[in-house]
Amino acid sequence: MTAATLERADTESKFIVCEGNEAAALAVALARPDMVSVYPITPQSSLVEHVAKLVADGRLDADIVDAEGEHSVLSVLQGAALAGGRTYTATCGPGLAFMFEPYFRSPGMRLPIVMTIVTRDGITPQSVWGGHQDAMTVREVGWVQIYCESVQEVLDTTIMAFKIAEHHDVMLPVNICVDGNYLSYGSARVAVPEQADVDAFMGVKNVNWHAALDPERPMGVDPLTGGSGGKGPSMFVRYRKSQCQGMQNALRVITEVHEEYARRFGRSYAPLVEQYRMEDAEIALMTIGSMTGAAKDAVDEARQAGSKVGIVKVKTFSPFPLEVLVAALDKVQAIGVVDRSVAFRWNCGPLYQETLGALYRLGRHVPSTSFIGGLAGADLTVDHFLRVIRETEALRHGRLSSGPVWLNEND
Predict the structure, then answer these.
(1) What is the pTM of this model?
(2) Record: fold of 3-214+225-265
(3) What is the C-alpha separation between 62 and 194, in angstroms, rounded?
(4) What H or E segment, with its residue span, contains residue 406?
């Protein structure tokens, strides 16, 4: 247990067994949003159904809008956020694609909307199963992206997401990325905190303090700022710079919010990057999301066989935790990065692509390989990760990889 855990307040929780989608919905209710806008899509559907039932049963006092499509879903929440409301939605896959215009617009307007992406692979070849392709495809749009490993982490991180988004130094929308199928439908024992304790953690609601729509105080929102005349371009540059600063501020705020949550509720998570058995590791696996459980089991088995291997799990993917990641990889001699999605331009996984940029900061060459697996809901097992360990060990001893390793190709 961490020092932060030992300092926790005397809070209470009840224990239930639920799927990840229900855990997310319960967390949303505990955060007390004012407006929820929804449209169901697999594997997110049961999440918004749970939210709708919480509203219908009187357990969540929020307006709920069943919009005609995802573009409208997020457009509704933009208006609600501009009016000073705390807002929430969830989507995935084609739904995320359909809402791309308002999705792109939300961070530019500095709207602290919270949205769960129940991650799903691409739509062609046809797939309704889990993967990270949808969330990774929009990673440069400007939303904070946080990935969860367990059902309990889904609940706790969803609560924290509202506080992160609404922090005055951030004011950006936040995605909680929940692995489709594995977490969305996976059931586990979950500790659900009491409402009064969450209220104390959240503090006084003060959403969108910088630009709230008010009929008594009319104002223009998102005016045209480009063009060759006037101060348009310089204003645009200042705005983009401020937006980037908010993303960098999020690294600190995410850390602070996680530390406070641990003190209050006794459950702690590495806010940016988790290190597992990295103290004397000579090779490192890098993971993201729910795959990490199988990876930890494989590392434990490999350790018993004498391999000095550890895991670096990325929880916060956007903004990318560059400095923390560089410190975690400082002494390793080879790295195997496992993705559940594809960066098509680079013929590798997106996490691997980002890791290459981080490795430049190390000032030395570290052999590394991209491993791609778990696409379209395929399982990533202990045996898959033992293969990753073997091939990463081979890198350390001079065997170079010619391209990505496709883990489920012959399953």
Answers:
(1) 0.94
(2) Rossmann fold (3.40.50)
(3) 18
(4) strand 405-406
